[in-house]
Specification:
The chain has 173 residues and is an all-alpha fold. Helices cover 75% and strands 0% of the residues.
Length: 173
């Protein structure tokens, strides 16, 4: 059983607030795993509203783009990825990491288009390409796996162990 969505949201919010302080050179998409989990749990319209809210939070926390740019980005990514969610099974440990990496690649692509629309300088070169389209999606996928999937499976294993201990203690009484 997946933990309540509120806990997952709070974890993402914590990562959005603390991530830039702890890892200033990394640009992890803090809400990507949360939104990917939502795709498998909520109807499309709720996912769109949550994507808008998460993007607006990122807009308020960052100063590099116009207000609403991240919200627009997350809504567009949600419009695209929600349709293919059935190919990523929620119960597979690697699915969240792969879907988050896909979210990252698509988000980066759309962010470049949005930056062009807003008339901002678009960094272009081999180093930025490798960073934005290979390294960062891998880091986002790893973040999703280590920060979300592993704790969920650890929680499940701990819960099963506690149930077994309780069963043994009841049997010995």
């Amino acid at each position: 059983m997946v933990p309540k969505l509120t806990v997952v949201f709070l974890l993402s919010l914590f990562c959005a607030l603390v991530g830039p302080v702890v890892l200033p050179s990394m640009r992890l998409l803090a809400f990507a795993p949360f939104l990917v989990i939502l795709y498998t749990r909520l109807p499309h319209i709720h996912c769109l509203w949550c994507a808008f809210g998460c993007g607006l939070l990122i807009d308020l926390l960052s100063s590099n783009l116009q207000l609403g740019a991240h919200a627009l980005n997350y809504v567009l990514v949600t419009l695209i990825l929600f349709r293919i969610r059935k190919f990523f099974f929620a119960h597979k440990p690697v699915a969240l990491a792969l879907f988050t990496a896909l979210f990252s690649i698509l988000s980066c692509s759309l962010q470049l288009i949005i930056m062009a629309i807003y008339g901002q300088h678009i960094p272009f070169g081999l180093a930025s390409f490798l960073s934005d389209f290979i390294l960062m999606p891998l880091c986002d996928g790893l973040y999703a796996f280590l920060g979300y999937t592993c704790p969920i499976y650890a929680y499940r294993g701990l819960r099963k162990s506690i149930k077994k201990i309780k069963m043994v203690s009841y049997a010995t009484k």
